[in-house]
Amino acid sequence: MTLAPPPNSFRNGPDARGRFGIFGGRFVAETLMPLILDLEAAYEAAKADPAFQAEMDSHLTHYVGRPSPLYEAERLTEHLRAKAAPGHGARVFFKREELNHTGSHKVNNVLGQIMLARRMGKPRIIAETGAGQHGVATATLCARFGLKCVVYMGAVDVARQAPNVFRMKMLGAEVVPVESGTKTLKDAMNEALRDWVTNVADTFYCIGTVAGPHPYPAMVRDFQSIIGRETKQQMQEMEGRLPDSLIACIGGGSNAMGLFHPFLDDSSVEIYGVEAAGHGIASGLHAASLSGGKPGVLHGNRTYLLQDGDGQIADAHSISAGLDYPGIGPEHAWLHEAKRVTYLSATDSETLEAFKLCSLLEGIIPALEPAHALSKVLDLAPRKPANHLMVLNLSGRGDKDIPQVAEILGTRL
Ligand SMILES: *Cc1c(COP(=O)(O)O)cnc(C)c1O
């Protein structure tokens, strides 16, 4: 039996208007409002329906491959202990989301939203994508369930993410290059929102992270929370207790919210989110919305955003295309101000070092996104006592990043 969280819980949000404190909400055109209310009602009904949960669970087991393992990274732990003071050096564990079908955590959320679209009788799915990982996950599940799939992708991203564009096409999706703005992820999301209002009757908008107007941030978090629920149970089975710390990378913040949410009221658990610092916060070339941005409104919610002096949305930069979103989910903005989660940032070069170390010591080539979080594990773990249990969310595998890393390292493939 699950007990309801206490009234002062960190897990109670959002309120009925979709607010996490002053963040979140639904700042959308009047024309979009009926669709969003419809979606909210459908999601509330699905959440309360045991048949929906049972169907989700079955697909998570047989199609996605859950549960993902909780794995103790022993050689990494030893390596970090060699540099630590006596009695220090945390035991590091990886939550292996990279082993999911399609290679990342994205599929957990997409499966949930596609199941909801089917329940609502919507045969046409639209999605935005940046690096293409969310687009691939959406195209995959649309193929699996025989749904029409249209993916909006900035023209710049289409050009630099050719393998993922080809994957989406193989899976039967239509990829629409977006030529407006900076021709990247935020423009793709604007275009998808425009499509949605135009094709009200048959279309479901599948958002890829804990952003957008309410109910998306809460709904995506709920679908990703399987990561944290499994981690809690697995650590209980392995060590008979809670972990001492959690750490995850942040693009929009969905893999992080998924790991963190079930632990928010466990006050003994330290929680760290890691943003992309690109060339460094001071350089202005980064994607760290909390460390280097300020509150504003984008894509239907109030949150921390990268902005220039006039309040225009600034371009995000990161070595990792999956992290270069100029905003962050509103629940993170709130957890930051409430000081429940500590937000750090990792530069491109720190990330590359962690990427190499993980590959050599653990035989796991991580995606560049979680390599950001891993680079902070290299700082944090040696300062913790030897009985400290630290869990890193290994959100995706590095296959997609091989050409880019090879180029940076000066290797011709
Ligand atoms: C997309 C992606 C991310 C960033 O998205 P979040 O919503 O912040 O989780 C992180 N890791 C991987 C592997 C991704 O594909």
Automatic annotation (TrEMBL):
Enzyme class: lyase
GO molecular-function terms, A-Z: tryptophan synthase activity
Keywords attached to this entry: Amino-acid biosynthesis, Aromatic amino acid biosynthesis, Lyase, Pyridoxal phosphate, Tryptophan biosynthesis
Pathway(s) served: Amino-acid biosynthesis; L-tryptophan biosynthesis; L-tryptophan from chorismate: step 5/5
Domain of life: Bacteria
Single GO cellular component term: cytoplasm
SUPFAM superfamilies: Tryptophan synthase beta subunit-like PLP-dependent enzymes
Alphabetized Gene3D superfamilies for the sequence: 3.40.50.1100
Boundaries of every Tryptophan synthase beta chain-like PALP domain copy: 66-395
Matching InterPro entries: Trp_synth_b_CS, Trp_synth_beta, Trp_synth_beta/beta-like, TrpB-like_PALP, TrpB-like_PALP_sf
Subunit record text: Tetramer of two alpha and two beta chains.
Protein name: Tryptophan synthase beta chain
Species per Swiss-Prot/TrEMBL record: Methylobacterium gossipiicola
Native organism taxonomy: Bacteria, Pseudomonadati, Pseudomonadota, Alphaproteobacteria, Hyphomicrobiales
Gene behind this protein: trpB
